[in-house]
C-alpha cells in the first residue's frame, strides 16, 4: 500500500478500486481462517454458555464485519494521510468528503463479501481441509475475474453469477474520476444482497450441521 501511494499525480478512483480488490482477498482469507482456528470443544462451551447456537454464530459474523469496517477505514485513511504528508500531491485532483465516504462504504461492501465467502467454508460445512482451501481460493478468484472469463466463454455467464460480485462492483467504476451516488447504488445493493444471502446460507448450514 505504501508503494501504491508513494507516487504523485495518481487518479483517485482507479487506485481506490485497486485497493478494494486487494481487500476482498485479504478479508476472504481472514473470514476463512477465523472459522478454521476455532476449536470444536471451545465452540460447544461458548454455545452452552450463551444458550443459543444461532446467537453465537451471528455474533461471529458481527465481529468479522467490525473487522471489515476497521480495515475499510484504514484502507482510506492511509492514502489520505499520505496525501497530506506529501502536500496534497499524491492525487491529481482535490479529494472531496464524498470521495472519502464513498471509499469507506465501497471498501466495506467488498470486505463484507469477502468475509461472507470465507466464512461459508466453515470446517463443519466443508470438513475436508484441502478441499475447503481449494474451494475458497477458486471462488475468490472467479469472483474477481469472472468478467474476463465470461468474455472468453459466454455460456458461463449462467453459472458464474453465483460467485462473489466483486468483478461487477469494481467494473462499475471503470473510467471514472469521481464517485457519484447514483453510480454507487447498484454496486452497493448488489454487494449487500450477496453478502446477506451468503451469511444466511452459512447460518442455515451451521444450524443443520451439528458439532
Question: Could you explain the architecture of this structure?
Answer:
- The chain is mostly helical.
- The chain has one domain (12-208).
- Helices cover 74% and strands 0% of the residues.
- The mean pLDDT is 90.
Question: Could you write a compact summary of the structure shown?
Answer:
This protein is mainly α.
- Rg: 19 Å
* Proportion of residues in extended strands: under 5%
Mean pLDDT, nearest integer? Answer: 90
Main sheet: strands, sense, barrel: none
Helical residues, percent: over 70%
User: Outline, from the CA principal axes?
Assistant: globular
- Helix/strand order, N-terminal first: HHHHHHHH
State the secondary-structure class.
mainly alpha
Oligomerization category of the chains in this entry: single chain
What is the tally of beta strands? 0
The figure for the number of domains is: 1
- Poorly predicted spans: none
The number of distinct helices, counting runs of at least 4 residues, comes to 8
N- to C-terminal distance = 40 Å
Quick tags:
211 residues, mainly alpha
Write the layout of secondary structure elements.
Elements (H helix, E strand, L loop, with lengths): L11 H26 L2 H11 L2 H33 L11 H24 L8 H24 L4 H4 L5 H6 L9 H28 L3
Amino acid at each position: 500500500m505504501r508503494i501504491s501511494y508513494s507516487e504523485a499525480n495518481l487518479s483517485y478512483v482507479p487506485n481506490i478500486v485497486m485497493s478494494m480488490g486487494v481487500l476482498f482477498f485479504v478479508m476472504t482469507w481472514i473470514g476463512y481462517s477465523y472459522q478454521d482456528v476455532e476449536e470444536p470443544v471451545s465452540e460447544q462451551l461458548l454455545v452452552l454458555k450463551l444458550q443459543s447456537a444461532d446467537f453465537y454464530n451471528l455474533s461471529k459474523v458481527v465481529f468479522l464485519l467490525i473487522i471489515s469496517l476497521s480495515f475499510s477505514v484504514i484502507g482510506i485513511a492511509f492514502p489520505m494521510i499520505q496525501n497530506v504528508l506529501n502536500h496534497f500531491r499524491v492525487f491529481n485532483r482535490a479529494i472531496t468528503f464524498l470521495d472519502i465516504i464513498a471509499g469507506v462504504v465501497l471498501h466495506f461492501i467488498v470486505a463484507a463479501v469477502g468475509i461472507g465467502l470465507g466464512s461459508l467454508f466453515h470446517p463443519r460445512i466443508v470438513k475436508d481441509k484441502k478441499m475447503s482451501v481449494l474451494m475458497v481460493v477458486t471462488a475468490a478468484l472467479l469472483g474477481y475475474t469472472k468478467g474476463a472469463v465470461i468474455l472468453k466463454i459466454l455460456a458461463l455467464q449462467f453459472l458464474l453469477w453465483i460467485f462473489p460480485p466483486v468483478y461487477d462492483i469494481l467494473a462499475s467504476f471503470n473510467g471514472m474520476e469521481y464517485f457519484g451516488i447514483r453510480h454507487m447504488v447498484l454496486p452497493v445493493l448488489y454487494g449487500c444482497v450477496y453478502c446477506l444471502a451468503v451469511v444466511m446460507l452459512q447460518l442455515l448450514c451451521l444450524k443443520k450441521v451439528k458439532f
